[in-house]
Amino acid sequence: MRSIPIDDLLNVAIDGGFNALQATIVNIRELKQYLSDDNGTDTFIVQCFLTHFDLDGPLNQVITKKCLFCNRSIRDNNGFNECTEAECRMKLLEQTNDENLSTKEVFSLNVHLTDHTGTITNVKLGDDVARKILKCSVDEFILMTDEQKTKLKWTYLLEKLRFGIQIKNNSNYAKPIVRIACLFPREYLPSSIDDEQS
After folding, report:
1. With bands split at pLDDT 50, 70 and 90, how would you rate the model's confidence at 26?
2. What span, in angstroms and rounded, lies between the C-alpha atoms of 84 and 172?
3. Which of 15, 32, 69, 108 is 20 to 30 Å from 127 by CA-CA measure?
4. Enclosing domain of residue 151
């Protein structure tokens, strides 16, 4: 197990529910092995390159709708916005008599992470971390030109980054969910991406 200086960890010790002090430092191969062993929920720190970050692609692959009340995903049901959480939907219908639920637009991207040991695909980058990384709101992002989105993408694409990763089992999915829980500031990166891999 590799270590990060304690001062670096304390600067982002708890960010968005990610506790860096309890995370294990791994490379991509080790992270994929952990997933294949089906070990359940855990937290990791991985230093890697962002190799797929499609900010300038179709908007529906960057932004999604969520229920304003329970924060669950929204699906289109014959032109009506419908919350995927049955209890929430039932409760709202009883209170409002309205099938159109209030929604909010949030960032929701799938990214790929790569280091010298391999690539892991379909890593979730959710709204809270995306807003911090992109330094903009969803509304501001929607107003950007394609050129501005491409420039923003290349600020991070193929750059050396250190992420806090959470793996969670979810009964609604066959495979565990791998999500980026935080981004460590660039000043906490060693001079070489291989410094911690040896």
Report:
1. very high
2. 11
3. 32
4. 6-60+108-185
